[in-house]
Structure formats: C-alpha cells, structure tokens
Amino acid sequence: MKTGQTSLFIPGPTNVPETVRQAMNVPMQDMRAPDFGDLTLGLFRDLKEVFRTETGEVMLFPGSGTGAWEAAITNTLSPGDKVLMSRFGQFSTLWVEMAERLGLDVEVIDVPWGAGVPVTEVARRLEADKHDEIKAVFVTHNETATGVTSDVAAVRRAMDGCFHDALLFVDGVSSIGSIDFRMDEWGVDLAVTGSQKGLMLPAGLGILAVSQKALEASTRATMRRAYFEFGDMLTLNADGYFPYTPPTPLLIGLRASLDRIAEEGLDNVIARHHRLAEGVRRGVAAWGLDLVAEHHSLYSDTVSAIRVPDHVDAREVLRIAYEEYNTSFGSGLARLAGKVFRIGHLGDLNEAMCLTALSVAEMSLVRAGVHLPMGSGVGAAQSWYAGAAEQGARLYVAAE
Prior knowledge:
The protein folds into two domains: 19-263, Aspartate Aminotransferase, domain 2, CATH 3.40.640.10; 265-399, Aspartate Aminotransferase, domain 1, CATH 3.90.1150.10. Helices cover 43% and strands 16% of the residues. It has helices at 18-23, 37-51, 65-76, 90-101, 119-128, 152-161, 212-218, 230-237, 248-264, 266-287, 314-325, 351-367, 376-399, and strands at 7-9, 57-62, 82-87, 105-110, 134-140, 142-143, 148-149, 167-171, 190-194, 205-210, 303-307, 327-331, 340-344. Helix 10 (266-287) packs antiparallel against helix 13 (376-399), helix 11 packs across helix 12 and helix 12 packs antiparallel against helix 13. It is globular, with a radius of gyration of 22 Å.
C-alpha cells in the first residue's frame, strides 16, 4: 500500500498549486452571463504579458498544445504551401507529421537528437529560396524529449538577414512561462503553449498568440478549418465570450495561476527555473552521467533528459521510482526509450522538490544497477542551492 503523495517530476502535466486547484473548485457558471467578460478579458490581457507581446492577439482553445499547433497551421497556410522545419526530437517530429498530414510541402532539416535548431542551415535554405516559396519556418523552442532549448532570436536574425518574409512559428509548449520568451522582440508570428506546463494547470487549454502579420495571413489562407477558426474566436473574444462552451473552471484556475506569476514576477519565475535546473544538472554531473543535450548552451531549464549506462534499461529506473518510491519521472520517447529518463523541473517547484527528485533518482539508479556514490547528486545540488541562496541574501542586504 502506498502512503503519502506521489511525487511528480515529469515535464507535464506539472504540479498544480493548491491555491490554483482550490480556485477551480467552483459550481458551473453561465458562460453567456453579462459579467463573464469580467473574468476572460483580463486573461487575454495578462497572457499577452506572459508571451511578451503588445501587438499580438491571444486565443484560448479548449484542447491541448497540439490543438493549438493545428489552429496555427490551418488558419495561416494553404494546402501545398512549402514550410521549413527542423527535426531533432519527438515533438519536433510530431509537428512535422502534423504539417504533412495537413497537406503542406514540408522541407525537413534532420539533425541529431540532442542538437538544437540548425540556425546556419536554416539561413542557407532561406537564402537559396529566391522566389519566396517557403511560407513559414517552424521552431521547437524547447524540445521536451531531449531537454534542448534552441535560439529563437537567432532564427529571426537569420530570416531578417536574407530579407525573407516567411511566418515564424514557435512551439513554446514547455518553455513559455518558464524560459525566456519574447514574442514581439523576436518577431514571432505564432507561438503555442498549453495550460499544463509553466502555467501550472491541468491539461485542457491550447494557448496561441498570433501576430498582426499572421492574422492578416489568415484572411488569405485556404486550408479548411471549423472549430479552430480564428475569425469566430476573435469576434466573440472581443467581448469576453467564446464561440463554443469554454472550460470555465480552467479559466478560473488560469486567473489564479497568472496572479501567482505576476506576484513572483515573470523575470523572477524565469530566474528561478534556471537556478533550480542548474542544481539538477550539477547533480547529474556528480553521478557521472550525461545529458542528451549536446552542449551546455542548449541545456533546458524545464527538463533534463539523462542518459543511463548501456548496461541499464532506463525503463527499469522508471519502474523502481514509481512502484517502490511513489515517484514519477519522464520516460525516454521514441528512439530514446530505455536509454533515457527525464526529470521535469518546471512550474510550481522549489529547491526541496528538486532535491527529492535527485534523491529518488539516485536510489532508483542504484537499484537498477548504476554504480554511483549514494548522495553525490543530492550533495552537489545542495551546494549549488545553498550558495545561490547565500548570494541572494547578500544581494538583498546590499539593496536594503
């Protein structure tokens, strides 16, 4: 019999703060009531701050981040349009598959899993596109399967450097609200996230921010859509309503989540994710294990994908953690199955939770046959967190 709570260290869905969970415990409401906009109009406004856009529009589609992907594609592109995508993990692969299934002409750049978006090659392909046949460039900002964060700003510079007019699509499902993301500054046209990651909610909302350029493209796009029609959504959203029944408890939870982010401050949220992630990475290094990410410049602050030794099956590490220690880690996906396990470190998270993750991971790794000094990863993370706290205290005193 399991006692206590199951510890959740997967890269989504993430832990829901108790204040957010309680906020969602409400009776059903009339989504056509005259005061419904009192709730929703503030959500659209405050989500723009999370995306860091002043000129874009934010839409909330009942569904998932994948649904928001489809909304982005079907509203702004037409069948047969050529798009440029790079594939370097399971989620960038799924985005390619969706684009192909929706009838786009997909030009794929394949790079090793563990690498990031190949900016130089993207620039070369765009430079060679003399007739502007490429209508969109797709970037997976944070590849959740490999723990790799790519440089979106560099992609925008590459596009501008060759004066290319393609739309810039960004999958920010496991980055927005946790890793630095700047829609307007980076010239992003469509940015996608989901409620179950950095926004600390249950799954159920696909969230999409759309630039004015992309909205203009949606008036010309001929791909078929119905449920995901931008025009229907924006017309009703203007007064705070939706063209279909919205998940009102999730919207109320989103209000509580956005209030938490605002209270902490978005810059502080991003800094906290970096500080906590660095402690996890130092713990992994102390074990003598490698991350999937090829270089420290690519390390994700929301998820670490950890390679296990060849003689160990990572699925056994996951089984031991779950069955014996009541803890969930992320599995290795697709070609990484059995070779990798993932520690998600995003959302409602603190140092003690990260130390728990490392402690359970150590015990599970040892039980699965990995030779490492017990406590080594935890000790390395403790040293980092204690040092960071001491430095923060000194800065606080200096500011006083």
